[in-house]
Specification:
With 370 residues, this protein is an alpha/beta fold. The protein is globular and about 55 Å long. The chain has one domain: 3-Layer(aba) Sandwich (Rossmann fold). Strand 7, helix 8 and strand 8 form a beta-alpha-beta unit. An eleven-stranded mixed sheet has the order 3-2-1-5-4-6-7-8-9-11-10, sandwiched between helices. Helix 5 packs across helix 6, helix 6 packs parallel to helix 8 and helix 11 packs across helix 13.
Length: 370
């Protein structure tokens, strides 16, 4: 067990550490991306930033993030401790607002929604994963939204992860604690005028997402369910049997329902060992276990680098491929012949009437790098 904990520490410690640095002039260099947020993290009075503590009150706000111009897709850089912020290279905050009331949040978000054409007033709610600080999740969301060229207004749900590679048990408990906050944020986003809501979750954030979807279904919140335009789970750290039970309670899953996974995900392989299970949902190899569910499993093993835990956000070739996600989603709603040849070098295999597996091959990376 000690060796497993050490391995988890070494793997997870590779993730960049960062904090919120406010640099108003950075917006003159980088592209400013407003990110609305809801968090159930408690505010750390010493640092003035949201920390690892849990809050029973969902705090609502907006951060304006400067995305630096001199970088490759997937690259995210924090200012090193003691160094001068460089807006050409670093992700920085140009301004931030903490809303006093949910009504203030809705009013501001509604303005952003109305700036979109009618019929395209979408919100994308991102839910970060294990071992994330508030700032890391916030900047990662700005990067992901920009690189994937996703439409709509980005919204960040920050649940109280310990931000520590040894905080796995703390984070699993926090994932359960955080479901009420995510449901509240989804409700406020809907009330602000979002016509459609897309949920994008990474790692343990997928557990937060599925628990929330289950809870919404049990409450019978049909109005909120009708706004859901899809779910994307990236390297989901969920027990497969638990996922099946959650999906059964949800009933008809929001469509499209995409799962990005890989059996080369080293963190999920460790997670499976720590939990005493052969595999997690994100490194599933036996598709028969979910073949009766209306989900699409996207195998990204061909793009795995490093820990292989966030290829969709890190790998430039895969980001270029998934920038066509709108076309992919449309194809999932068509017959099988409409999917063949949609993505270069990708083989689409129908596991069952409701299960689709994308298996990327190495040629995709070569073609996209030309």
């Amino acid at each position: 067990m000690r060796a497993l904990i050490l391995a988890l520490t070494l793997l997870a410690a590779c993730a960049p550490r960062g904090s919120i640095i406010v640099a108003p002039d950075a917006g003159q260099v980088g592209k400013v991306q407003p990110v609305y947020m809801g968090t159930t993290r408690a505010l750390d009075v010493e640092t003035g930033q949201y920390g690892r503590g849990r809050s029973e009150v969902t705090h609502l706000g907006r951060f304006d993030i400067s995305v630096p111009p001199n970088r490759q897709p997937g690259d995210i850089r924090f200012t090193r401790r003691g160094a001068k912020p460089d807006p050409k290279r670093d992700f920085l905050t140009t301004g931030a607002v903490d809303f006093a009331t949910p009504a203030d949040f809705r009013e501001d978000l509604a303005k952003a929604m109305r700036a979109q054409p009618r019929g395209k007033r979408d919100a994308v709610i991102y839910i970060h994963g294990f071992n994330n600080t508030f700032s890391e999740g916030l900047y990662r969301i700005a990067q992901l939204h920009e690189d994937l060229e996703l439409p709509g207004v980005p919204v960040h749900y920050s649940w109280p992860s310990a931000g520590n590679p040894l905080g796995y048990v703390h984070d699993r408990d926090s994932a359960t604690f955080a479901r009420d906050g995510l449901e509240e944020l989804m409700t406020e986003v809907s009330r602000a005028g979002a016509e459609r809501i897309l949920l994008v979750a990474h790692s343990m954030g997928s557990a937060v997402t599925m628990e929330t979807l289950r809870q919404v279904a049990i409450r019978g919140s049909t109005g909120l369910q009708s706004r859901l335009s899809g779910v994307v789970l990236i390297s989901p750290d969920i027990d497969v049997d638990v996922f099946r039970a959650q999906a059964k309670e949800v009933g008809k899953l929001p469509q499209p329902f995409l799962i990005f996974g890989s059996d080369r995900d080293r963190l999920l392989n460790l997670s499976a060992t720590l939990t005493g299970q052969p595999e997690r949902l994100g490194n599933l190899t036996d598709m028969s276990r979910v073949a009766d569910l209306e989900v699409s499993f996207v195998d990204v093993a061909a793009f795995a680098e490093g820990t292989g835990h966030f290829a969709l956000g890190d790998n430039p070739a895969l980001i270029g491929l998934m920038a066509r996600i709108g076309e992919v989603n449309a194809a999932f709603g068509s017959d099988e012949t409409g999917r063949v040849g949609l993505l270069p070098g990708v083989v689409l295999t129908v596991q069952s009437a409701t299960q689709i597996i994308l298996a990327p091959v190495g040629a995709v990376a070569q073609e996209l790098s030309r």
